[in-house]
Amino acid sequence: MNYLTMDFGGTLAKYSVMDENCQVLLREEAPAPKASADQYYDFVTDVYTRNKKKFDLQGIALSMPGVLDSDSGLLIGSGAYIPLHGHNVINELRERVDVPVTMENDGKCGVLAEVWKGNLKDCTDGAVIILGTAVAGGIVKDRKVHKGKRFTAGEFSFALVGIEDDMRSTAYYRCGVSPLLFNACMKKGIDVTKLPNHGLTKFSFIEDQKSFSEWNDRPEYAHGMNGLQFFELLEQGDPDITELYQQYLKDLARLVLNIQIFFDPDKILIGGGISRQERLVPDIRAALADLQEKVIMGYRFDTVIDVCYFMNEANQYGALYHFLEKKKQEESVK
Questions:
Q1: 97 vs 47, 129, 263, CA distance in Å?
Q2: Over pLDDT 90: what percentage of the chain?
Q3: Strand partners, 174
Q4: Cβ pair 318, 109 in contact under 8 A
Q5: What is the pLDDT of residues 29-59, one digit of tens each?
Q6: pLDDT of 200 over the 80 cut
Q7: Among residues 106, 261, 309, 317, which is most buried (max CB within 10 A)?
Q8: Is residue 108 within 8 Å of residue 155, measured between CB atoms?
């Protein structure tokens, strides 16, 4: 049987057709349909309709940002998809498509993928940090994803890793990729309003740019700076980018150390598109070792820090696993 899996990020919506053995029959992406609720529902419906006969689709598995109740389909906190706040996404889609629909938080989907067929498959306890527009993630206890009473367990974006009394202290601002690129544009004098996620990274405590540098006129920065350009400048030794990256690693190390202290898992995995940079995880390990040496007084945790097996595709595989598990549960009670 084949299924449509869809991962909705702040910048892109990525979708695939897979079978229950994770064989990928189709993989595509499009700009995130987050301008309105109708745009979102029309997007899902259109992708399904275009592919249902060709692949004999038997269901739709969604990975969504924000706080949500995966059983009822209610989107409690909408993340980047602000027009969907308070919507029951599953019920809305059931009126438009003729197959079952499931939905799970994106970070928890990332965790499920790693537990199912990834780098947590042999672990009892683990955690996954997904570095994207914000910082998604999840916690695995006894091989089950822990959601918490209000479905917010593992929402690492609002973990405090700084000392400010505003969003500057959160992992979202300090460890999310979109704020990192926002600050890189500010440093280099590139107009931040060019960035796809400018609306999600413009905070009240950041002053509007008063002037731009010659970098702003370069055609390669017509849409701001992307992650690949950031790491190219880093490899070239750009002092502004190097300074930002070193602080970024320190903040990530604080987040990882806090998870180690409070949970003590077997492994902590790093995912998201930025995890494809081969230097990232070794650099995090080095920053973590330095931080432990300074604050833990000689004690060292032996938690394994590794990359997600599925990298930035984890959410789609996890969404499929969630769908198949829900299907299994429903069939067992019939």
A1: 11, 33, 41
A2: 77
A3: none
A4: yes
A5: 999 999 999 999 999 999 999 999 999 999 9
A6: no
A7: 106
A8: no
Strands 57-64 and 2-8: parallel
**Nearest CA among 94, 126, 89 for reference residue 105:** 89
- Give the pLDDT of residue 334: 66
Separation CA 104–CA 111 (nearest Å): 11
Neighbours of 86 (CB within 10 A): 10
Q: How far is CA 59 from CA 4, 97, 237, 270, 281, in A?
A: 6, 9, 48, 29, 35
Pick the more confident residue, 302 or 119: 119
- Please give the full DSSP string across 280-324, using - where no structure is assigned: HHHHHHHHHHHHHHHHSTT-----EEEE-SSGGGHHHHHHHHHHH
Phi and psi dihedrals of 330, rounded to 5?
-65, -35
Q: CB 60: neighbour CB atoms within 10 A?
A: 26
Distance CA 219, CA 118 (A): 39
User: Element (H or E) spanning 5, and its range?
Assistant: strand 2-8
If 0-12 CB within 10 Å is exposed, 13-18 middle and 19+ buried, where does residue 89 land? Answer: buried
Pairing of strands 267-271, 304-307: parallel
Task: Please give the C-alpha separations between residue 74 and each of 16, 33, 85, 208, in angstroms, as whole numbers.
Answer: 23, 18, 9, 36
Residue 54: in which H helix or E strand, if any? Answer: helix 37-55
Task: Assess whether pLDDT exceeds 80 at residue 117.
Answer: yes
- Single-letter code of the amino acid located at 282: P
> Side-chain half-sphere of 210: how many Cα atoms within 13 Å?
1
Please name which of 116, 114, 142 lies closest in space to residue 128, comparing C-alpha atoms: 114
Please state the pTM of the whole predicted model.
0.86
In angstroms, rounded to a whole number, what is the distance separating the alpha carbons of residues 165 and 167?
Answer: 7
